Structures
1.
Amino acid sequence: MYSGVIFILPELVIAVMACFILIFDLFVSSNKRYIIYYLAQGSFLFILFILSYSMKVPKCILFDGAFVFDSFSIFLKFLLILIAFFVFLYSKKYLFLIDLFKSEYFVLCLLSILGMMILISSGDFITFYLGLELLSLPLYSLIIMNKNYISSEAAMKFFIMGSIASGLFLFGVSMVYGLTGLIELKGINYLITEGDIFSQIGILYGLVFIFAGLVFKFGAVPFHMWVPDVYEGSPIPVTLFIGTVPKIAALGMAYRLLSDTFSYVTNEIEFLCIISGVLSLFVGNIFALTQSNIKRLLGYSAIAHVGFIFFAFVGSNSNNFSIAMFYVFVYVFSSLGAFGVVMALSSKLKEAQFIFNFNGVGLIYPVFGIVMAIFLFSLAGIPPTAGFYAKFFVLKNLISYGYIELVIFILLLSVIGAYYYLKIIKAMFFNVSDNGVEILGVSNFAFLLILLNGAFILYVGMFPSYILQLCSL
């Protein structure tokens, strides 16, 4: 018999640690703030241990259906905390260099992670919205921490777009609640499946508005305008955090909506996913072609990858969500490594923001250049990296549902999209740097982790079955 505390213990640890760090910072001198870093990392390790133990715990629904504890939520939380752990490891030295090694950074990250974990386990729309807002609000403050004009513009654009998306989401929820009288996700799904409530057009309108909130969190078209600006305007550690960890929470959001709430509305969901996927893939790849700023390039690249994630949702349900999970898994680790390399080549005075900053990296540091090439090949979907199988499984799934023309269109855009990744590789191995290249932004340990990250991407690309099986939980 398990105590109910074990189910919410990860969230409690994050919440308590965020409050503790905020208070602890008042009593610690500036030269001992490294203790805060180890407190945050220690809490992550403790949560990973709890989640590993929780794998044996049966599915449970708490707080009158508001909180769902199942194998899906455990896996996503484990992956989320693991990625956050690596983000902090990669960022430690660079946070010192740019004077952002402050308790506020860690507290805001922890609060955002708490929102993500709540979102992943939400069982009704109230908990869902609570997690959604707690995820977003700290990110607005993180973006503006370095207090410059570009960051202010990016944060304001993100805030305005987020407010609009939240309003649309709440409007959709109000329509669904007005027709069903329920806020529980499973209860709404039951009424749609078993009753004739689906015949009412209001449910479809509600679905469209709720889907808009999902589109924003992924950064898909038409709610994509904030992505390149936020990627460019944020400090690299914040870009690293925003570009990886929230994608896992967005996947959890998609699962709760598409599988737990509207699983019966298959055709309508497929239509919305395909439209958003096509637009995101087209806009992301076309606009990335003209970018010289590597952070904006990776921002548009993220929009294109979100298009693939939406294609993976086609035909997905509670028993078949492994393709989308595998794609997000591979994308997050590939982006983690790519932004880690960008951070490594940055210094206190200059970020490696532009493609010419990578000139000669592969010639001066061959191993480092090869690892970056692996990350870029994975993002482009070129074998033998993990990104190839991630895209292959998505395309195979679409073919099984008869979307042959769509697959041809995706392949053409993917070939076009590979060009801007190859520009970076060309700069690393065929251009000569005028000012030399130094690895200053990461510690030696973080440098080793980036190399292991690249090896892991290569390993998954050659032996994807274990990770795919893991994503099928």
2.
Amino acid sequence: MIQKGLKGVVAVETTIASVDGEKGELRYKDLLLKDVVEQQTFEAVASFLWEIDEKQVTRLLVEGRQLGFDHLFVLKVLPKSLSIMDQVRTVVSSMGTPELLARSLKEQAVLLTGALAVLTAAAYRIQREQQPVTPSVELPHVANYLYMLSGSHPTKSEVTALETYLITTMEHGMNASTFAARVTVSSESDLPSGLVSALGTMKGPLHGGAPSGVLALLDEIASVGSVETVVMNKLQSGERIMGFGHRVYKTNDPRSLVLREACKKLSGEERWLQLAVEAEKEITRLLALHKPGRRLYTNVEYYAAAIMKSIALPSELFTPTFSVARSVGWTAHMVEQLENNVIFRPESVYVTSVNDFAP
């Protein structure tokens, strides 16, 4: 039987993460996501997934920030009309130098993750005709990313909000971009090439599409002043309620629950987050009433949009920032693939075409 998209087909064994859509569980290793996130830093969770000492991860992330002149030069000469994802992907393709590839696989994973955040921030600023900000060697990974984007030191609440988001989206099992990365390195290609494949896949709107629709929904609710009015108008016109429903999770998306709690803690400082929390309750009630049996709950995009808005991150940075987080999962999977490698070689079934040449 053909499984289009390989849905339901098991292709690898992994110790990195597991997703249970029926139970609404996401585990990093053997730990539930909510237990991983509590009072943890990006560096701590990344070291847990990579299985590397946290101090070494911190040191290597800082080392990875030190991009060569050549990489920044490439960014500056690329067409400004390219998206940030395209620009970053192009530069990553030039990073497979003999010096990098001489390092261990796990060291390469950390170095590439450190570099990706710098490239993303630099590409963003260059597009805006601003000079890239020299990365700090003192700031932690998330604070440094925000610093490189704006040139100003972020507030504690901004760092907390984004760090929670990055940890929550760091890994999510065998998704399309992770599979693409594993397929690439299964040919015994290198980690930068696998990262290029992952970035190209993440760019697609069916995978890493920016949650701009959620922002539009919340903007409309804030403008109209009534959740019910906005939602009922959309339901009656057959529109989808953005930020609700997920292909995998048939109950609450565990990432959404974690981000909701972060929003509640920070909502005293940011009215936008308070709006998101209050609107979710009413939207969930209306969907259960008017679409019974559909089990439509918030997905990760709903609260991701609220958090991005609260820290004034522009929409063109949503998917690139998602990639800054997911680079940890991608590289962890590539290392795992290469440590016990079998090349991916699925089969296809030829279907006769009506246009076949007939001599």
3.
Amino acid sequence: MNLLQTLVAFVIALGTLIVFHELGHYLVARWCGVKVLRFSVGMGRVVWSRRFGPDQTEWAISALPLGGYVKMLDGREQDVTHLPEAELRREFTRQNVWKRIAIVAAGPIANFLLAIVLFAGLYMHGIEEPATRLAQPAPGTPAQLAGLKRDDVVTAVNGVRVAGWSELRWQLVRAAVDAKEGGDARIEVRRPSRGTFTFTLPAAALTALDLDGDVPASLGLAIALPPPVLGKVDPGGAGARAGLRTGDAIVALDGAPVQDVGAFTQAVRAAPGKAIALDVVRAGQPLRLTITPEPARADDPRKGSVTVGKIKVELLGRPDMIVVADGPARATVKAARRVWDSSVLTVRMIGRMLTGDVSWKNVTGPITIADYAGQSSRIGLASYLSFLAVVSISLGVMNLLPIPVLDGGHLLYYSLEVLTGRPVPERFGEIAQRLGVGLLVTLMALAVFNDVARLM
């Protein structure tokens, strides 16, 4: 069932982004007076089509779903010598260079506009998310060494205000990218009954982060959670063998009070194969049990594969939640700023990859995107729409890269035409086109390799 939901979520996301991208090209081409012959969702052989409109434009679905295109009347691709003068005036290459630039740029711009609309809608509707109140940082983590403590409420990162956990994570990712240039991260917190403080996370800790992983957790930042109360207890797990039951409240571990779910989880994970004394309250009565977590392998964001303890019980309790909502004007401005920041961050990440400062493992492909589509759809509609906006931004940025065969490559040609006053030589364009195809195939192969490596 999860696989089916993932596939459906991926197809809907991909189809939506392709349609909006190509609609950008189509609408501006029509506005500029260029005749559009075909609007295709997908590449390769046409499997379904219908003709509509005064120009009888063919609207088609093609066999290969990874992409789409708008086919215009273009003398480079069709024989136009037999057409009347009225039709020739609507041929793409006969338009002035600024119209051609507008038509090509319209696709990526449509992706950015879609992301702004989605983010603005989410910000106006309001998003329930965990507050920025922190759990006690684990010993030795950058957050603990910086002086952050349990119940600190993060209010800003590098001077940018944060209202919820997703905003905090986003600003930490930005800070990690900025750290490549030697910048520390200033974390402003409000400490209950003691006022506001500023702490510093050093650049060295930020540059070591895996930006594709859980950035806050790698720094030692976690959401403050309530004391642990047990939900479902797996009959075959260490918890059931120790006598734990649904509804038990864990109050102490080896005589030390348990602050919250996170602290209890960390203590269990740190004790594989070791006996632990648990103080439990069951139906209002205190009870002491002894439990031995089972050893299991797990991935640690800082240490790689490690052995941890597991007891196979469900821990109940929600963190403090807030609803972040804005009016239409503020939501739109906030959405536009988010799209701009995300675009700049993507470009900077690409630059870091080219210089070797960031691993090429961060290049992801359709398998990872499909996985994220499925995960976000299972969380809820707001999460899925946010995912859709993020991917739309990435699609817009990638299409603006100056690679032949992409929109950015064509924009580069037309920019040179503006500067020199004459079109790029046809022979040069053919060679660049072949190189662009080769580069795209290489990047796609790398993305698929990284996807498979993550799965394994």
